[in-house]
Amino acid sequence: MQKTALVTGITGQDGSYLAEFLIDKGYQVYGIIRRSSSFNTGRINHIYQDPHEPDPRLKLVYGDLNDASSLNKIMRELHPDEIYNLGAQSHVMVSFDVPEYTGDVTGLGTIRLLEAIREAGIKPKFYQASSSELYGLAQEIPQKETTPFYPRSPYACAKAYAFYIVRNYREAYGFFACNGILFNHESPRRGETFVSRKITRAVTRIKVGLQDKLYLGNLEARRDWGYAPEYIEAMWLMLQQPRPADFVIANGECHTVKEFVEEAFGLLGLDWHKHVEIDPRYLRPAEVDTLVGDSSKAERELGWRPKVQFKELVRIMVEADLELAKKETHMKNYRQG
Ligand code: NAP
Ligand code: G4F
After folding, report:
1. 255-256 and 222-223 as β-strands: parallel, antiparallel, unpaired?
2. How far is the CA of 196 from the centre of ligand 2 (A)?
3. What is the mean pLDDT of residues 271-286?
């Protein structure tokens, strides 16, 4: 029988790749979207609006992680076999500006989903998008499943609540519920205010003459950056195991923001010193200095291993954004006649 999957955060970077992945596996996919005054389905339109697919394998339903009644209704009506909770206010810096809202969506949103499952009396497998931000002020290097958490932002505190409530429902009610502790993963679909995409958008726009400066915050922060489409497979693999568990998913290689900048500018033959300036507005009240993960448990138990390494990731993103920048230039020239 065809399996059904419900995805929160389907309009985001990961949700869009996960939808493609699950459809390829033959799933009927349902995605929860929020009402917005402008279109927010740009990353999934190519799947959702496939004219050759009369019975779409991706169906969208309105709901919100802040709204329990919408989640209860969705569970009662859809009875999904698998649920992937990717929805979140996912920006660390923004969480300092809207801490309560972040706690509500990113933390309490998870309990609303788990309770909706209980009230509907269904037994889906559940994936929670946990984060390497949980390690924050890292207590050991590299970080693995047993490393103590030390969250450093309202976002990370909200994710810590979600992590523990998922584990609690597994132990208390026998939920098949897994935490994927994913380290940073990027792609051409990454939101433009995260540092990787901010850099690749800027360097390519500088290359075609659409902008001159790139303003950044802390260039010394170190991250373990991987390629998002590969990390999606790990989410699915967790739910195919005989027993639920939590897994670190990471590349195991760590680079500074400055190295990302150097690599991206170097690919286009540009000198970053002429274009990059530090703007204190992008410095965080509490920074996470170094994240680097050890995903040997995932390799052992899931057979998952990353392939795309740092330089290739930067190249993939720069090439995609260069195409975008060229299109922007054509549009600009067209408009100017
Ligand atoms: P993203 O691009 O920011 O997408 C976030 C998604 O959540 C969007 O679809 C957004 O919908 C949705 N959302 C926001 N508020 C919501 C609400 N109140 N109700 C329902 N949906 C809501 O994030 P991502 O990079 O794909 O990450 C996916 C998940 O993994 C997130 O939970 C993130 O915190 C976590 N994570 C990400 C990384 C990473 O490196 N990417 C690493 C570890 C963990 P709109 O389009 O309507 O805004
Ligand atoms: O790209 P970032 O905003 O990602 P961050 O804070 O690591 O969070 C992302 O990864 C987490 C996994 O560890 C996810 F849970 C979370 O949802 C999100 O996807 O910032 C990366 C680093 C930070 O140290 C930041 O201070 O880059 C530094 N940075 C320097 N200049 C900047 C900038 N970050 C942003 N966003 N913008 C800057 O101008």
Report:
1. antiparallel
2. 8
3. 98
